[in-house]
Design the sequence.
């Protein structure tokens, strides 16, 4: 079994069950939307898959192996990449060095090789000025750097947590194109979290909807967006 | 009410705003523009967070540029910052109360305003005892708006309020802003131009630290450039 | 690979290195007193560098004096009971202290920030108390004399010993700076979750850094015991061995080898000369200097210099561009 | 109840049981332990205030207390009054010293790297200590006071009672700080600033003024503590140093920002130290208990505090 | 020849931030000024160069190096604290200049110096000398005053090197008596609570209660003893110095102490009186500890030896020092003789004194006695 599966994945923080018995899967080559209200558990789900949190119960399986107990840094090496909703660039490193880290540690490349790979990757994503400090980047560049960092672990599954948030529509379209290309060229499974439904509609073949930590609906966006539960919990009257 | 005239502003050697002028006369005003255009810089300049190196900012006839932030807040401007900036270890109620408590003219009417805020955001009434830091992103955004309202501002500034909000709440928020602008002047920056144009009366488009376009909501909505850059999706 | 060529060339460190080397060898021709001062400066310098190496991961240690003192005791005990030859006690102490740090680090490296700082401080106290009370082994409060000291206390030889040790420490620090360790530690300092998601094994790197820096502190402690021929709980674990190196690093500039070097030379030499002019009360002036430097050079001396260099570099490249256009 | 709250309650209960057990074995150890806890807590509370709100580890904390003690000593000597009468002027002077120190030095480092404040206050500590040393020499000073050896006799044991002033002082400081932070506008502002200074200024709080006042309050509290300290202990220029580290340890043990827990921690430490000292030849190991318990408390919390 | 007018240079090392070092160095300067006023030594002026040891071994060692190589001094004097001295010994041994040391009591320092170092002169008694002198003193006192019982001892000692050494020495030396002891953390080391120790002592009910700590402990320990109503027949304090204005306290009366010097010696020693008066008139303060007169003594003893040798020849001066009889400000006549390890040990005795009427009076050695013992220690309700 290629890709990532979860079985009844659950995590509780104190009294709050942030992710509640979720069965989710992502296989290379597909782009899946993960949507749901604020606080539904989307980011937490990604953190569980990336190994940042250990689940209270349930399993995570990757390429057929149980990785529930595998720590985050080894999951990165295995090929699970992710971006962060609240972006924290490594601000004491330059743009290219930020991107290098994945090649260095997850990919275990030499310094030189990692730097070359990072430079090439940045070029692919249209990022210039490689030796700038991260404070000098604008939001679009920051978001692209975030994607580059996630790609630097050479993932087979990739999670993008609201990378389009805060971009205007031109920029958003630019990033959508980029994500498509990435998916096509690298045969990745990509999980996309976004609150902008235009993006979800454009980009994804399949959507899962979380609410209160539970998976309440799944299917193509066109179907899911008609689901009354989804409309009342999430979309409201706006779309 | 708020007039920004020929303002220069930046960070160290980087100049972001150049000779910028705009005004908020009342109602709701939108501020649009690509990333890094200087929207937040302008707002922070108004709030006294960024230093203005040239030009002037007046609010209700008084010069407020380079005044300390707390004075500006006391003077009747409240901000909902892009990063929310709540007090994570305080409860929802404490966060709201402190919004009024520190502003002399809002202090005595605190309980009254609280009811108004709860009216706009019923979820906050349900969660009064919850620590602000444990609320979800969208709830925190509502709390930040509520907290700003507690200061009884005559001008409310919101910096990208819809960022990261679920669609239904974005919609709701703009509906509320639409109601609010009847009593309070509103200045809002947004990437979600489509939603905001529903609510604002006038708008400015900012690029590279300069105003490149100004007009009523309708004028902007029909501008081909705006259409292309901001309404494509 | 034009983008790789863009990487700023690092010339400044070599200038510094040459300067430092010059300074380091100067006392050889200048006589025993400068050698003594230089030995002391080198001692603090190595402690400062080792502290800096750990703070590069964001972990603030208040335990320098603890590992320093432990190293001294390891040297004294090794020499007395196991017959370790004087110079080898440095290696012996480095290994013993490194292993102790490894064991302790395995537990306490869960902690961050102030909590880690306090625990390292408390550990230093505990080492002191144990050495103080374990009279049968350590001579208790009186301390112990070393059976014989390195090179029989020959000034030039011991000075060269310190110089070699310092060169090793600077070498290790530079290795930290220019290898993958640099990226690991910096990433950990900036954001651990991001670091882990890039594949950095946080725990392993922290443990490595903690053991190596503690080992260095142990070796320096051993060298100190060798220089003076004794250890006592009060002098070996003196809190000044924590605070002075820390002050030196912050004054010189953090996160690099040359900040601590500059800070140590500056404070060490200033401290020594000040008291010749102001015999009574020079420490007051010393304190004032620390305050003033922090107020007016918040990024330390190296930071200040680097800022200037960078600015001038920028203006020259800008004018070059302007000229080309 | 969160895990952390539960741990606190458990710790408090455990401390209570230990105290009772010790009381049955050696009643005076409990008395002295509590007295010492009062001393520890009353010195640590002002540090906790500054650490929790201004986020500064003030390495000059003990030296500030030392300066206050000398001020009261000098006043008492010069005017021939009881040192406790010097309480009011010393407290006022220390409040002003706090303002001046903050404005002149610390406020200028708030934008720099965090650790600069650490080294700045280290420099200040050095300056204060050396200045007092030059003015007053290193020779210890102490005014002999009758009431300091006030004693009570229960059954056939006599024990000193004066040190209960430290217990009272700790209780009063805690209550005062609690009321200040919860009930006054300034205190609320201080809490807010402590949590998020950027958020605080946009709700109309003058952040620098708040920092200044909090620092000055801490200094003023040290004025009070210092005065009582000098009635009981000899003072000399380095007398404060060990209390800086001790207070810092206590604050870390309690958890930053948790004022009531400081009192609990002080009781745990004070009583266990007294208990160890009550064992013949246990004295030499009592610092081990102090630091061992601190490590233990911090480690336990980190294991309970769990992930993330 | 020009050389005749060239000054004789003495290099002094003290912790100048500490009252002992500050006053020790000032007293040495006093002696130098006095010598120069009388035409110097061998007709040559005398110079004193003082460097701060900062109470730290490496600074102390650096001071020796500087004095030897840059300042080119002829003698080393000064000293306080065994820890610092241990650090200086390797440097001292490198230069082997005549050294007249006023501090460092630890036998470890003596071992570090080692045998056959004829250039090294140590004024301060070693820890075991002090212990032995107490035995001698107490035995003599008990003989002369049969009321005074000294059979049961309790020693409260600070847990650092100073107190522990006292305790061990006392245990060895008074081995035929009943001895108990308990350590405490000195206020100087961040402590200051003596209740546990005092309670233990009270239960033990000793004839002699001795506390070995620092000046900072002096008054608080008495106040706490009073609070628990512990008033042994002999209340002895053994700090190296006493706090300012201790004598003013009502609690001081009848406290016995060890020391080498007190202003009361002025009545039995002319040198002491002379020293005291010039110190007070020059510096407008009292010498607070015996390290002050020791500083003076170190200079004067060297001066006398050089004059006797008639030249600056090191061997000649050493020979003179080894045969010297110097009438010191401390009362005794100092001469040097081998101790356990070194060849030239000066003073071997501490004196037993007592606070009476706000002043330290000498009880023993009887030849310097300025007063009779007050016995037993008065109860606390005075
Ligand atoms: N470390 C944590 N401790 C306690 N509660 C947490 C923690 N992380 C997340 N939560 C809670 O878990 C719930 C899910 O949070 P999560 O961040 O996954 O939501 P989300 O779906 O990503 O929402 P958004 O769209 O606003 O980003 C929220 O109620 C949040 O407050
Ligand atoms: N603290 C800062 N220091 C230096 N430069 C800054 C700082 N904050 C912003 N800038 C720069 O100023 C410019 C304007 O940024 P600003 O945040 O005002 O843009 P914005 O229009 O609000 O964009 P966004 O949509 O990203 O919020 C950008 O180039 C940005 O990189
Ligand atoms: Mg999220
Ligand atoms: Mg912005």
Sequence:
């Amino acid at each position: 079994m290629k890709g990532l599966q979860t079985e009844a994945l659950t995590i509780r923080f104190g009294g709050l069950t942030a992710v509640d018995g979720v069965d989710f899967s992502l296989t290379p080559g597909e782009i899946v939307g993960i949507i749901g209200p604020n606080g539904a558990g989307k980011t937490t789900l990604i953190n569980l898959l990336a190994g940042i949190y250990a689940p209270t119960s349930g399993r995570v399986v990757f390429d057929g192996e149980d990785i529930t107990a595998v720590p985050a840094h080894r999951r990165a090496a295995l090929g699970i990449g992710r971006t962060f909703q609240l972006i924290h660039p490594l601000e004491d490193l330059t743009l290219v060095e930020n991107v290098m880290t994945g090649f260095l540690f997850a990919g275990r490349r030499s310094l030189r090789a990692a730097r070359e790979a990072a430079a090439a990757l940045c070029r692919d994503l249209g990022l210039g000025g490689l030796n700038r400090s991260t404070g000098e980047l604008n939001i679009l560049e920051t978001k692209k750097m975030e994607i580059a960092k996630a790609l630097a672990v050479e993932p087979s599954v990739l999670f993008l947590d609201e990378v389009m948030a805060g971009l205007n529509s031109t920029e958003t379209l630019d990033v959508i194109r980029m994500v498509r290309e990435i998916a096509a060229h690298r045969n990745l499974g990509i999980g996309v979290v976004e609150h902008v439904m235009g993006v979800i509609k454009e980009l994804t073949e399949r959507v899962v909807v979380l609410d209160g930590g539970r998976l309440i609906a799944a299917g193509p966006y066109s179907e899911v967006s008609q689901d009354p539960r989804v409309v009342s919990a999430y979309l409201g009257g706006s779309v | 009410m708020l007039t920004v005239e020929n303002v220069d502003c930046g960070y160290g050697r980087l100049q972001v705003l150049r000779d910028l002028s705009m005004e908020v006369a009342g109602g709701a005003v939108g501020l649009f523009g690509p990333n890094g255009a200087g929207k937040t810089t302008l707002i922070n300049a108004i709030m006294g967070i960024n230093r203005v190196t040239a030009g002037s900012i007046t609010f209700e006839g008084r010069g407020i540029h380079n005044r300390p932030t707390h004075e500006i807040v006391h003077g009747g401007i409240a901000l909902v910052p892009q990063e929310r900036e709540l007090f994570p270890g305080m409860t929802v109620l404490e966060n709201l109360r402190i919004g009024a408590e520190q502003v002399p003219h809002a202090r005595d009417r605190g309980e009254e305003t609280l009811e108004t805020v709860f009216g706009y955001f019923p979820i906050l009434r349900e969660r009064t005892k919850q620590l602000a830091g444990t609320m979800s992103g969208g709830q925190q955004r509502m709390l930040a708006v509520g907290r700003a309202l507690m200061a009884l501002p005559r001008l409310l500034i919101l910096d990208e309020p819809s960022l990261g909000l679920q669609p239904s709440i974005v919609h709701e928020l703009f509906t509320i802003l639409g109601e609010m602008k009847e009593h309070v002047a509103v200045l809002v920056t947004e990437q979600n131009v489509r939603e905001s144009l529903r609510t604002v009366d006038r708008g400015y488009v900012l690029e590279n630290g300069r105003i490149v376009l100004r007009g009523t909501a309708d004028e902007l909505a029909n501008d081909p450039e705006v259409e292309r850059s901001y309404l494509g999706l | 690979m034009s983008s790789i060529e863009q990487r700023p060339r690092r010339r400044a460190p070599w200038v510094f290195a040459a300067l430092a080397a010059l300074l380091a060898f100067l006392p050889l021709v200048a006589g025993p007193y400068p050698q003594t001062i230089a030995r002391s400066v080198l001692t603090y310098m190595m402690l400062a560098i080792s502290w800096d190496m750990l703070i590069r991961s964001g972990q603030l240690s208040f335990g320098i004096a603890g590992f320093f003192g432990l190293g001294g005791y390891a040297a004294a005990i090794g020499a007395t009971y196991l017959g370790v030859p004087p110079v080898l006690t440095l290696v012996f102490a480095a290994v013993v202290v490194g292993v102790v740090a490894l064991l302790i680090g395995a537990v306490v490296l869960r902690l961050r920030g102030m909590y880690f700082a306090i625990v390292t401080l408390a550990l230093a106290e505990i080492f002191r108390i144990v050495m103080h009370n374990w009279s049968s082994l350590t001579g208790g409060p009186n301390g112990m004399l070393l059976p014989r000291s390195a090179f029989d206390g020959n000034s030039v030889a011991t000075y060269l010993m310190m110089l070699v040790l310092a060169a090793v420490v600077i070498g290790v620090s530079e290795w930290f700076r220019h290898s993958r360790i640099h990226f690991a530690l910096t990433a950990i300092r900036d954001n651990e979750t991001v670091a882990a998601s890039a594949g950095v094994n946080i725990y392993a790197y922290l443990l490595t850094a903690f053991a190596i820096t503690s080992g260095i502190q142990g070796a320096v402690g051993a060298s100190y015991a060798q220089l003076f021929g004794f250890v006592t709980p009060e002098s070996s674990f003196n809190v000044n061995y924590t605070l002075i190196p820390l002050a030196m690093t912050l004054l010189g500039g953090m996160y690099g080898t040359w900040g601590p070097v500059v800070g140590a030379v500056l404070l060490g030499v200033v401290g020594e000369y000040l008291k010749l002019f102001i015999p009574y009360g020079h420490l007051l002036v010393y304190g004032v200097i620390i305050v003033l430097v922090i107020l007016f050079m918040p990024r330390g001396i190296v930071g200040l210099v680097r800022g200037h260099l960078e600015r001038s570099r920028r203006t020259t490249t800008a004018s070059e561009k302007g000229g080309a256009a | 109840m969160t895990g952390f709250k539960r741990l606190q309650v458990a710790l408090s209960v455990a401390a209570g049981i230990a105290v009772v057990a010790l009381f049955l074995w050696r009643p005076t150890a409990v008395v002295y332990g509590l007295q010492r806890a009062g001393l520890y807590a009353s010195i640590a509370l002002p540090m906790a205030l500054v650490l929790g709100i201004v986020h500064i580890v003030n390495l000059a904390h003990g030296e500030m207390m030392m300066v206050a003690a000398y001020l009261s000593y000098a006043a008492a000597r010069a005017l021939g009054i009881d040192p406790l009468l010097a309480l009011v002027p010393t407290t006022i002077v220390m409040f002003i010293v706090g303002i001046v120190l903050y404005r002149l030095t610390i406020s200028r480092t708030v934008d720099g790297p965090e650790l600069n404040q650490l080294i700045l206050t280290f420099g200040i500590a050095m300056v204060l200590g050396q200045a007092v040393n030059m003015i007053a020499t290193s020779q210890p000073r102490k005014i002999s006071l009758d009431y300091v050896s006030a004693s009570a006799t229960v059954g056939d044991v006599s024990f000193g009672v004066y040190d209960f002033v430290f217990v009272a002082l700790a209780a009063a400081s805690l209550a005062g700080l609690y009321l200040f932070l919860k009930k006054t506008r300034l205190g609320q502002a201080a809490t807010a600033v402590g949590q998020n200074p950027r958020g605080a200024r946009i709700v109309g709080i003058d952040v620098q003024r708040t920092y200044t006042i909090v620092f000055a309050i801490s200094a003023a509290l040290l004025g009070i503590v210092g005065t009582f300290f000098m009635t009981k202990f000899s003072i000399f220029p380095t007398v404060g140093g060990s209390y800086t580290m001790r207070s810092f340890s206590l604050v870390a043990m309690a958890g930053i920002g948790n004022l009531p827990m400081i009192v609990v921690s002080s009781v745990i430490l004070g009583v266990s130290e007294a208990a160890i000292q009550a064992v013949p030849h246990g004295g030499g190991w009592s610092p081990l208990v102090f630091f061992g318990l601190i490590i233990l408390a911090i480690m336990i919390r980190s294991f309970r505090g769990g992930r993330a | 020849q020009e050389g005749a007018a060239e000054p004789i240079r003495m290099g002094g090392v003290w912790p100048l931030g500490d009252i002992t070092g500050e006053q020790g160095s000032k007293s040495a300067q006093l002696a130098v000024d006095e010598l120069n006023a009388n035409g110097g030594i061998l007709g040559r002026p005398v110079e004193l160069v003082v460097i701060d040891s900062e109470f730290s071994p490496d600074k102390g060692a650096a001071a020796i190096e500087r004095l030897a190589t840059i300042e080119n001094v002829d003698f080393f004097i000064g000293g306080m604290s065994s820890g610092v001295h241990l650090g200086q010994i390797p440097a001292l041994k490198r230069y082997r200049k005549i050294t007249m040391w006023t501090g460092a009591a630890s036998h470890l320092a003596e071992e570090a110096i080692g045998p056959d170092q004829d250039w090294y002169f140590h004024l301060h008694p070693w820890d075991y000398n002090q212990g032995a002198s107490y035995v001698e003193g107490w035995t003599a006192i008990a003989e002369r005053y049969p009321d005074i019982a000294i059979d049961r001892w309790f020693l409260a000692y600070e847990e650092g090197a100073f107190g522990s050494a006292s305790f061990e020495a006392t245990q060895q030396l008074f081995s035929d008596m009943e001895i108990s002891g308990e350590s405490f953390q000195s206020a100087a080391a961040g402590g200051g609570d003596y209740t546990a120790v005092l309670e233990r002592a009270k239960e033990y009910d000793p004839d002699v209660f001795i506390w070995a700590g620092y000046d900072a402990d002096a008054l608080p320990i008495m106040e706490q003893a009073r609070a628990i109503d512990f008033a042994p027949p002999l209340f002895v304090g053994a700090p190296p110095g006493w706090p300012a204005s201790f004598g003013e306290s009502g609690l001081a009366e009848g406290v016995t102490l060890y020391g080498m010097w007190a202003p009361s010696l002025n009545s039995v020693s002319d040198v002491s009186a002379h020293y005291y008066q010039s110190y007070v008139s020059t510096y407008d303060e009292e010498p607070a500890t015996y390290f002050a007169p020791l500083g003076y003594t170190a200079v004067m003893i060297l001066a006398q030896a050089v004059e006797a040798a008639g030249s600056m020849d090191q061997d000649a001066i050493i020979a003179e020092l080894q045969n010297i009889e110097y009438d010191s400000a401390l009362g005794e006549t100092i001469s040097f003789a081998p101790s356990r390890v070194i060849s030239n040990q000066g003073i071997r005795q501490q004196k037993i004194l007592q606070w009476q009427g706000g002043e330290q009076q000498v009880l023993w050695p009887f030849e310097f006695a300025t007063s009779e013992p007050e016995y037993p220690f008065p109860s606390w309700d005075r």
The mean pLDDT of chain A is 92. Chain A touches chain C at residues 50-52, 71-74, 76-77, 81-82, 84, 88-93, 96-97, 100-102, 104-107, 111, 115-116, 119, 122-123, 130-131, 149-150, 152-153 (CB under 8 Å). The longest helix of chain A spans residues 169-186.
